Amino acid sequence: MPMEELGCSSGWGVRVKGEQGKREDRRLAGVCGLANSGNSCYMNTVLQCLFSTVPLVEHLLSSHKRSQRNSPVAGVFVHLLQEVWQGQGGTSFTSPGEMRALVSSLHPQFNNQSQQDAQELLLLLLNALHDDLKNKGERRQTRSSQRLCLGRKSLSSAPAAGDSTVVTRLFEGQLSYQMLCLHCDGHSHSNQVFTILSLPIPLDSYRCSLQDCLLLFFQQSTLTCGDQKLCPECGVKRDTAVLTSMAKPPEILVLHLKRFGCHGSEKRKLRTNVLFSLDSLDLTPYLSRPSANHTSYSLYAVVNHTGDLDMGHYTALCHSTLSSSWHHFDDTAVSEVVDFLVQSPNAYILLYSRQPFHRPTIPQI
């Protein structure tokens, strides 16, 4: 079926005047396919989402940050950004070979031709970029804390504590935990920094809303058995009631839908159609305290996953501020899509922005 019948269009380039006044095709800045180097679709989709994060792109391509382009991680990322955002001519895709080599060197898990988890790679890249920029002097002193990817009863490493960079200023939020010892009724409190929220999906449901997933994440839980917390009053681990709320909303909210898991010894993927808003995602019900700041978010990028846990494929949907339209990225294939096609039961990672993105201030576009 032609893409036009599906609400898609391959005409995502623009026409500009070339030499001697001739009209020539030139792809839209920031909209560029990426070659697959062997099961690297998971990497390509994560990169497309980062390429569409306008404040990050502007910061890294700004002229006064050129010294950072020689950094091991930031240098490779910025070089690819330049190709995607500032590349000349009508080439519809580029090969992220340097980035693939970099990803392979960052962690043994990615040093192969196997399919990997896009969420884990996104966390790894944010962590590596933060560390690289911090080491190169782009830092603002901030209170020491641990940055985590948070899901219900699951934690994994995220950008290390210490100085702030553009990564932490954009992607970092803070959760608040109010804890009650169920033995002595003693209260305690702690905060934890996050870059990605991993949201549970209601089980045995064909369809649910993103708000249902958020309610599950923030609902009161009871920690028992091996999950018991140390009570400061009792001096031993006790069953603990925990109420989670958001103390500091991030500028960029990254939501990971926990579709992959195990049912007994069987691996499975939840195919629940999670209905999400393209704009006006309101976090007010989950805040620790009322806020005068804007807490309504707009969607700008989605990572989709089709297939099963071991045999699947990743694609991305990203919004362009230059064309005010959505584009579908399937490795080298890029097409413009209508808004209603963004909603899909294949959604795996959702990226929201607290402030609407403006037309990026980038030289040569």
Automatic annotation (TrEMBL):
Protein keywords: Hydrolase
The record, for CDD domains, names: Peptidase_C19R
Catalyses which reaction(s): Thiol-dependent hydrolysis of ester, thioester, amide, peptide and isopeptide bonds formed by the C-terminal Gly of ubiquitin (a 76-residue protein attached to proteins as an intracellular targeting signal)
> Native species of this protein?
Oncorhynchus mykiss (Rainbow trout)
One Pfam family recorded for the sequence: UCH
Q: Which GO terms describe its molecular function?
A: cysteine-type deubiquitinase activity
Q: Which InterPro entries match?
A: Papain-like_cys_pep_sf, Peptidase_C19_UCH, Ub_carboxyl-term_hydrolase, USP, USP_CS
How is this protein named in the record?
Answer: ubiquitinyl hydrolase 1
